[in-house]
Amino acid sequence: MKMSADDNILASPGDFSTRIDEGVLIAPPALVELAQAQNLGSAEEFVGYARSFPSAVAASLGWQPSAAIAAAQTLSNQLFDAGILNVEAIPSRVYGLG
Question: What are the sequence ranges of the domains in the chain?
Answer without folding.
Answer: 2-81
